[in-house]
Structures are given as C-alpha cells and as structure tokens.
Amino acid sequence: MKKLGMHFSLLLAASMLGGLSPSLAAEGLENHARIAETARAYIASRHPWQQMKTKITVQSLDPRTKLARCPVKLEAFLSAGAKIKRRTTVGVRCASAKPWKIYLPVTVEAFAKVMVARHPIAPNTDISERDITWSQRDISALGYGYLRSLGDRGGYRSRRSIAQGAVLTPNMVEASSIISKGQRVQLNSSTGPVAVSMAGIALQNGALGSRILVKNLNSGKQLEGVVESENIVLLN
C-alpha cells in the first residue's frame, strides 16, 4: 500500500509540473493555467513599460471551456493592427493537427512616481518644488499623460486651476515665460557665415522655444524671433 501511495504521489507531481491537473490530463484537455501563462509571457516581453514596476493580470477562462491538449508549444498573438495597451485582448492558439485558438483579456498596471499637486494651484501660477509632491501611480491608467519633472529652464505655469492631489498632466501646464514684455534683449541674426547682434525690446512674454515679437532699437522695426535663452532672441 505504501508503494502504491508513493506511485500515485509521483504521478500527481509529474502531472502538476507538466501544467495539467490530473483530471484534465486524463481527459486529454488543455490546462487553463498554461494558456494564461502563454498570454501573460507574451505581454510581459512586449508591453511599453519595460523599465517600470508592472503587474500583469490575465482574466480567467470560463471553467466550462474545454480545449484539446496541445502537443506543441502554444503561440500567443494579437489581432491585425492591435497594439498593446493597459487592457489588451491576446489570442492563444494551438497549431497542431487539431488546431484551436482562444482570446483572453490581459491587463497591465505600470507604476511610476509622478508629480501631484501638494495644495490647490491657481491659474497662471509658476509651479515650483513647494507646489508639488511625488506619488507612485499606475501610469497606464493616466489617459492624459503625466509629468515626471518640472521641466527645463523656465519650468511650468498652470493653465487653469489644479486641485490638491491631482496628478499634473501636460494639458494642465504650459512653459513658463523666461522673457518678459518690455525686457531689453539681445537680437541675434545669421545669414550664411555672417552673424549679427543688436539690441532690442521684447513686445511679448516668451517661454523657451516660443515665437515672440520684438523691436529693433536701432531701426525701430518690429520683428519676430524665437526665444533662445533668458535674454536672447534668435531672429528668422
């Protein structure tokens, strides 16, 4: 009896290691766990958040679903034109003499630290470190994007009111002005190998990289240029 019990235990262990429960193995049916793992592994190696901490969840198959045990390696695939997103439907197929395929919803949660408003921020406010805090969020669910820094020179200014605890998104902010209307600036112009600099006055506020109107102090002409730094405007 001891030998019989040991023999049964070994068969059970071998069956489980092979990805099949004893009942499914006996019936020649595919194990749902093997199908789910095929879909999970496919998404895990291809989703767009590879450098982040992620959680991948595969929706369980209906327990009543019965598919013939596949004698070859299962293949995962996406429908034509489909892209991997937070929630993606993944196909799994058996390319054997008796082929079959099935589709499973797979969800990816990707976590990263994002900027969150520490307190309510009024419109047209220059945003600084004292206005924000950092919080780990599932960025795959942030349909409007998110910000992970205060930006380059000049930083950001709020476009509208931002509620306390809100994740800061690109549509909530704009680049802060680094040149102010009425400010004296240097106007640089280059035509081929010749570069010319002249004094000017900014006629508008300007953020880094934005186009503003300026006035040439020598000629009095109104010109348009691109803000290159805190006091330089590059003329066309």
TrEMBL record:
It comes from Zhongshania marina. It is found in: Periplasm. Residues 112-174 form the SAF domain. CDD domains: SAF_CpaB_FlgA_like. This is Flagella basal body P-ring formation protein FlgA. The gene is flgA. Residues 1-25 form the signal peptide. SMART domains: SAF. InterPro entries: Flagellar_FlgA, FlgA_N, SAF, SAF_FlgA. Pfam families: ChapFlgA (PF13144), ChapFlgA_N (PF17656).
